[in-house]
Specification:
- This protein has about 220 residues and is an alpha+beta fold.
- It has a single domain, classed as DNA primase, PRIM domain (Alpha-Beta Complex), CATH 3.90.920.
- The strands form three sheets. Strands 4, 5, 6, 7, 8 and 12 form a six-stranded antiparallel β-sheet that branches. A four-stranded antiparallel β-sheet has the order 2-1-3-9, with helices on one face.
């Protein structure tokens, strides 16, 4: 339970905006699971702390049942009805840019320790480069299979130009830093991007010796 509380250090809540949790059946799972979406509205709770506790309880319960657990990164419109997956049109503002570093090639199973080490080494190279370009320090997360660098934005209103800029930013990093082992995922530029809930087990494919399931955690 303690690690999931770190989710809020990376993904902050707003008093007037809902957050969305998505539970997805991992590829290769034989369990009878179906994708589930749940919306948490601040107005439904006595306080943001109450919302956090309920979100954490639901995330951990679904994770234990065999799901991989994700949440939307950016600001959802206040009148979002819930019950369905959040779409790009449901996002009003960007609050986060994700640099997702994972192994190249087949990612249908858990990563090895060596592949994770390579992802974090590349993350260090990218952080140093962006720091020299004037970027602030990111928040580092072990995604369970690689490295996530989260850069916070100053509540940037969503627009086609913002989307294009973030896409080009990720493609530029990939062109400069990708290698034969790990690289930057250039597909995570969409406004409604979901990301792993910190403190939950990242279930990807079938675990095996040297490729276990691991917890997504703040580092």
């Amino acid at each position: 339970m303690s690690e999931i509380k770190n989710h809020w250090l990376v993904h902050q809540l707003a008093n007037d905006r809902p957050i969305s949790l998505r539970a997805i059946k991992p590829k290769g799972s034989q369990l009878p699971l179906f994708t589930r979406n749940r919306t948490f509205r601040p107005s439904d709770y006595g306080s943001l702390d109450d919302l956090r506790v309920e979100f954490q309880r639901e995330a951990l319960q679904l994770n234990q049942a065999g799901y991989s657990i994700y949440a939307s990164m950016n600001m959802i419109r206040s009148d979002f009805q819930g019950g369905l997956a959040v779409k790009d049109g449901d996002i009003t503002h960007r609050t986060t840019v994700l640099v997702d570093i994972d192994r190249v090639g087949d990612t249908s199973c858990p990563a090895s320790d060596a592949e994770i080490d390579a992802a974090f080494d590349l993350g260090g190279d990218i952080e140093r480069f962006l720091k020299d370009e004037g970027f602030p320090e990111p928040q580092w997360v072990h995604s369970g299979n690689g490295c996530h660098l989260y850069y916070r934005l100053p509540k940037l209103q969503e627009s086609p130009l913002v989307k294009q800029t973030i896409e080009q930013f990720l493609k530029g990093l990939a062109a400069k830093f990708n290698n034969d082992i790990v690289g930057v995922d250039t597909s995570v530029f969409n406004a409604s991007r979901i990301t792993k809930v910190i403190g939950t087990i990242a279930r990807k494919g079938v675990e095996s010796e040297g490729r276990p399931y691991r917890m997504a955690r703040l580092v």
